[in-house]
Every structure is written in C-alpha cells, then in structure tokens.
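Hi Y.,

Following your request, here is the sequence exactly as I used it, all 439 residues.
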Amino acid sequence: MNNQKPAEINKSKTKSKLSTSDLFFLSFGGQAPFISLLTFGTVMISLVGTQGAFAMLIATAVVALNGIVVNRLSSRFKRGGGYYTYAYYALTERLGTSTGWVYLAYALSYGGTLLAGGAYVLYSILRMLPFTPAMLLNQWLLALVVSGLASALVIAGVKASAKYAMVMSTAEMIALIALSVFFLRDSGWHFYNPFTVNLSPSLFEAVVFGLGIPTGYGSIAPLGYDASSKSIGKVAVAVVFYGGLLASFFFYSLGALNFTGNLVQYLLSDFGIVGAIILGFIALNDGTLGGMSYILANSRTLKAMSEDKVFPSILAKDVRGKPLFAEILIAGIFTSAVVALTNFMGLYGVFVILGGLAGIFNLFIHSSANLSLVRISVKRAKKHWWELSIGILATLVSIAVLIYSFTGFSPIMINIFLGWIVLGFFYLEIKEMLSSTED
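Below is the corresponding structure, written out as tokens. Let me know if you'd prefer a different format.
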C-alpha cells in the first residue's frame, strides 16, 4: 500500500468543470435506463411476473452497497482515474494497474453493450416501418451512427456532453414515468401489493438481471479531473436509488397488467407509427448517452494510467483543458470495435457477447474497490467501523454474485476475460523489462 495519505494523493490540478447536477445526468445516462428496461427488464418480468418490482428493489439495495463504497473511496482520493486510483494507492501498484487494465475492458464492454443495444432497438423499430429505406437497415451503419454521435459529443467537450445528458436524460425520465402511468391506466388502475410471502423460485435469478439496471456510478467514478470528489460521492449513491426506484415503478406498472411479453411490440401496437418514431428516438438517445458516459470514463482512466507511465505520457497531456489524445484514442477504439463486431456477428450478437463480458469485468473491478475500502478502513477499524462493515458486506455480496453467475457465462467469455488478464500481465512485464534495459 502506498504510504501517502489517500486524501492528499495526486490532487487534480484542473478546476472542477462539472456540477453535481451535471454528474447526476451523466450517471443516469450511463444507466441507459430505457435499453436496460427493455432487455434486462423483459427477462426479469418473464422470470417472476408481478414480483418484478420486488426483485428490482432488492437489486437496487445490492447495487447501492457498491455505490456507497464508491462514495467513501471518492472522499479519500481527489484524483481522477476512479477504480484504478483506488486500488493503486489502497492496495498495491500492481493490483491498481491490473484493476485499471480491467476497467478499460469493462468500460469498452459495458459502453459497447449500450451502443449496440441502442442501435439494435433502433434497427428493430426501423425494420417494422414500411417506409424505411433499405440503406438504414444495414446494422453496421446504425452502429456507426450511434457510436459516432457518442464520440463526437465526448470530443466536443465534457460540458457539451453534460448539457446533452441533462436535456436528454430529463426527456427520458419524463417518458419512463409517462409510460408507467400509461400502463397503470391500461390496467384499470389496478394497484397491488408487490411484497408476498409466496416468493418465486426464480426471484434471485431475476435480482441478478436487475443488478445491471440501476448502475451508473461506474461511469462517473473516474471523473475526478472534471468534478469534485464530494459531488462524485453524492451522485454515486443518489443515482442508484433514483434509477432503481424509477425502474421499480416501471415494473410495478407492468405487473399491474400481468405483462410478460415483448415490450416493444406492445408499445407499437398501442402507439403505432408515432410510437415507433418516438421509441426509435429514445433508443438512439439512450445508446448515445450510455456510450458517451463510458467513453468519457475510459479516457480519464487512461489519462491517470498514463500519468503513472503505464501508457505513453502523451495520452495524459491536456489540450484546452481536457485529455484530447486519450479521448480520440478511446472514441476510435469504441467505434471501431462496435462497428467491426457488428459487421461480423450482427447487433444482437454484439449485445450478448459484450454484455456478458461487462458482467465478468464488473465483478472484478467492484471486488477490487470493495477490498480497497476494507484495506483503508481496517487500519483504524474502531473509528471507521461503518466503512469497514460496508466494505466487507459488499465484498461478500460480490463473491456471492460471482459464484452464482460465473457458471452461466459461456466458456468463450471466460476465456476472453482470462486472456485479457494474461495480456495485461505480459504488457506490464515487457514494459518493465524495457525500462530496466534503458536504465
């Protein structure tokens, strides 16, 4: 563990550009709630029916544990880099570098999932419309459009990204609340008790799927260069509860309908062509928001690692107050990866593969963050007993989820995960040998 006091380590020299509200909307956009509800939510409803809202509340409580961990860690580290910085100074430099290496893959996987998911929903809707030009049904083109929009917003600047997130996230919140009220109206205002003693045997499986919905703090944790650590900590917790409660209300309204089918088809049947256009716009916006949030986060993680000479120092250089070279590189990797994979296996295949990889990488980085908090708190356990308890509990939950879900991942995904870890090990070893040679 680094001997420097965590609160004094590498404070960002850049004045905060993002307010607490900016961070909230960026983080909410990182949840990509509409796409998450259409995908993870459809599975949850099919598993537990009217207990979907209850399952979502449990998932929110579990995710909130990791949000609290980020809240406590961000108060100690004033530097950008998020999970990489936490592990680098709280655990060891080697574990920190490994965590940063894995986060780069996590953000690409999760952000790529949201980009592909937005493009896939858009493609599904366009395919249903009789007047859609054939060119717009090229899946790789839709992937390029969504990825290109997200990349352009990032390169335009963090304030431009935040303004876009504020406007579009607000519109999305209104749309989700309106849809939930619409479902309740369609049910004849049928209100019911979502809590029951007759729990579904698939409840825990539904909770695991629900864990992917109210996250969002993972996209703002690395933004210490652009915002105050206090704001990051506040939003890390607030966005979990807001997103989780909004999703719970959405599922409650679907439960009132006893709905278990295809949500997109249901909406199209009620709203027709006008509904299809609105849904297509929301899907495009959602994919753009999610991808933009994780491109930003990845560029800041890359900057922090480059400052520590893990990568070429030019990637840490600020141009007009932002790491322009890191942003361009990360945006290029995101766009190229999503478009190339889409051309090879289609949008749905990309969504499934990257979504599974994001799940595995997610377990790794959050376990690292949880252990970082435990390591920091255990030195003064009597004073920081609450943080120590949260860190231990969050670690146990992460391990439980890992044990339960790991058998569900395909061998290909596990091999890619392990291969990425090994590739990072070789990169660091070769770099260290070259540095020793130069000395």
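The longest helix spans residues 324-378.

Thanks again,
Q.
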